[in-house]
Amino acid sequence: DAGVIQSPRHEVTEMGQEVTLRCKPISGHDYLFWYRQTMMRGLELLIYFNNNVPIDDSGMPEDRFSAKMPNASFSTLKIQPSEPRDSAVYFCASILGGGSTEAFFGQGTRLTVV
Amino acid sequence: AQSVTQLGSHVSVSEGALVLLRCNYSSSVPPYLFWYVQYPNQGLQLLLKYTTGATLVKGINGFEAEFKKSETSFHLTKPSAHMSDAAEYFCAVSVKGRDDKIIFGKGTRLHILP
Fold it and tell me: Cβ of B101 and A43 within 8 Å?
């Protein structure tokens, strides 16, 4: 397996534009997590899914953020409209079987909103 | 709810010296504990984990950590630092059966001095 794949690796967009980040988890993994990393706040859990169902979205900062997982091999994180304070690195991670097992991370998407 | 505190956002040690990165957790039930490492422009990789059993856990690259329930700690150590250890290190906690989500500390950047 190629690991967790995120796209794009880098995204620069103007304030007010819609941004969509994509993630392909490792095949067979049943949990998918979205994290946001900034210098100030570290690594924050935004939302996670179990078997494609959102379990906890309490970390999603505002209604401008939404995430979907239409099938076991694909998830999106959308920001609409984007703001400069959304600039961060967004990571996707997948896990097989729950919280005691290793999380495999993608390489992240570096988002810059100007 | 579980949480993780990492003491020191930056730690500097000389090459060959002992590495000690501190992590304290909060959890109302027995936790699963992890250390992850992040190299520049990459996602996180698992160093080691504690689930049950032996409280001294050995990981990759010569790192180890000890689970101390009485101190609610899971400090990461390595007897002799190498230049290649320079990276950011994250402590994480999860609790089986309690949402299975993984909560990360804010990270400690390890600098190795020649």
Answer: no
pLDDT (tens digit, 9 = 90+) per residue, B15-51?
Answer: 999 999 999 999 878 789 999 999 988 889 999 999 8
Specify burial of residue A88 (Cβ count, 10 A radius: 0-12, 13-18, 19+).
buried
pLDDT tens for A6-56 read 999 999 999 999 999 999 999 999 999 999 999 888 889 999 999 999 999
Q: Which residues of A touch B36 (CB under 8 A)?
A: 103
Does the distance separating the beta carbons of B99 and A103 come in below 8 Å?
Answer: no
Q: DSSP letters of A26-39?
A: PTT--EEEEEEEET
Tokens of A67: 């995430």
CA distance B85 to B77: 12
The CA distance from B65 to A26, in Å, is 28
Q: What kind and span of H or E run contains A46?
A: strand A42-50
